[in-house]
Amino acid sequence: MSTNQASQVKSEPAESAQVVSEPTKPKPAEPVESRQIESKPTDETAYPLRMHDFSLHDPFVLADQASGLYYLYNANYYQYRDAAHGFGKSVVLYVSPDLKRFSEPVDVFDLNDVPAGAWYDDCDSPWAPEVHEWHGRYWMFVTLHAERTDAAYPSGGPQWYRSHELRHRRGVFVAVADSPRGPFTIVDPTRPATPPDAMALDGTLAIDVDGSPWMIYAHEWVDLFDGTMEAIRLAPDDLAHGIGEPVHLWSASEGIWHPADGDAPAGGWRGDFDSDLFRSTVAEGSGGYVTDGPYVARTPNGSLVSVWTSYSRGEYILSQAISRSGRVAGPWEQLEPLDYSDAGHAMVFRALDGTLLLIMHTNMTRKDTDGKPLVAHGIVYEVAVADDGFHLGRHRADLDGITDPSRDE
Fold it and tell me: Which keywords label this protein (predicted)?
């Protein structure tokens, strides 16, 4: 049977493969206590937008107790193309008092003036911004790109895959600001926090059991064919420099839905791309296995659990993994996926009233009846973090404006 990995928007193009069998669906989520988020009186001129009024891709929310406001960061992705928004290559910020009404977008980081000697350039928009408060300042993790001037080829995968040339390089950089409103400035433009020779993206902050900061990031399938999740310890003073060698956490083909989909065995390929089983399962020319969007939380018993995103039957799937040791280095065990509705790259935050929420984006691959890509929007759920992982609760249509969470049109 041929493989079924989809070519993602955030990567080099790859050939698609045929649809495979229906995956085993996860058990229904355990009930989660529901609480309405109290809406504050707002000025319509200051907060004229609703969440469904604008496109979101890899959204990130910082709930700020000090100001009583929510800061929603998003990659511009050419949605706003004027100079004030980096000609489409920027990170924009929407501010909200209640997650129901939002300000117009403001540019908080862009590529208008790339410094001389920078590792990155302005060939693409920044991807997947996250902002974390650390030691009294605000630190943005953001994926940046550069066009390659040298010949480079994938470092992993079957031999037939390693022959295509890589056109870009990617890495996760750290920028800093004194306010969540920015502007953010790259700490070290000359090299990413991730290994500079890795196609790295979607970095997130994880605090280990000893209090040390780490970055968990995706090592992209474009380089490896079977994408991985990796982690590197960060310098505690500025978070911008990796310390030591990266640690392998898991590979995309380990996702537990793959045997039902028929495109990988239980436990994944484990680098075995020369076996008869691989050759009979994966058609030559197929796309690879994707790791996207990690985000971690502590469970009540101290385990570390991570959402992450990949593909099943050609659509985005939100899955999860757990480190029962509580250590960033693991070992990590794959858990049942959370959502099969072409939505993903999720993060979790606690609303100002204490409700734990998960936000992700919809419509990674889906199209309308005319074959045009559907707009990606933010979608919000209540969520619980239990000792056995994440459990999705009530869909918050009152926040995201999506009537049917299984189909955002």
Answer: Glycosidase, Hydrolase
